[in-house]
Amino acid sequence: MTNIAPTHIGLIGAGHIGGAVARGLVKLGHRVTISNSRGPESLADLVAELGPNATAGTPAEAAEAGEFVVVSVPFKAYRDVPVAPLAGKIVIDTNNYYWERDGHFAELDAGETTVSGVLQAHLPESRVAKGFNHITAQSILTDGTPAGTPGRRALATASDFDDAAALVTALYDDFGYDTVVVGPLADSWRVERDRPAYVSVQNREELVANLALAERVLAA
Predict the structure, then answer these.
(1) pLDDT above 80: residue 193
(2) Overall pTM surpassing 0.70 (yes/no)
(3) Cα–Cα distance, 46 to 15 (Å, whole number)
(4) Nearest Cα to 80, choosing from 6, 13, 175, 7?
(5) Is the pLDDT reported for residue 219 higher than 90?
């Protein structure tokens, strides 16, 4: 029994994280529409692997199709995420800021906002929640365990909207993880790159402790 009944979910970005999340969603019985910046034809192999519950589309088509949508693109491409078809929807943001790849964003370097806060500002009529950003792609489908397992791995989320944080919590549990809700998006920096919680294998208590240890380290 899963927390989230089978539904249609859109994915914008089909790299390592997006692909792993798509595989997990299909395994849980969901239908997915997957997209990337290179066009639906570039996703033929992934769609074939995932089977009949997967289709490829454009980012706009994935955004339109999904009851909720997972965004997993390089941070520098966040402006390419379509706005109108995501209005009123929950958007799960897996992104991280790698200034070496993305170039410098002054507001992030100065600690004035967060990665997911920037996406929320880009999507003012959506409800953004952080998710799957501090676990490696190869671990998403292998580290999950049933609820109640001693030492069960925990993942963090953050959102300005209670229903968005609740959705990520339910999805994490379906994937096999406990959840710690960090707070609003303004606090999501605690689980961003270079903090103690980032890609650490940790249970709920350890994650809470690591979040508390985080310091607002600025980009080099």
Answers:
(1) yes
(2) yes
(3) 10
(4) 13
(5) no
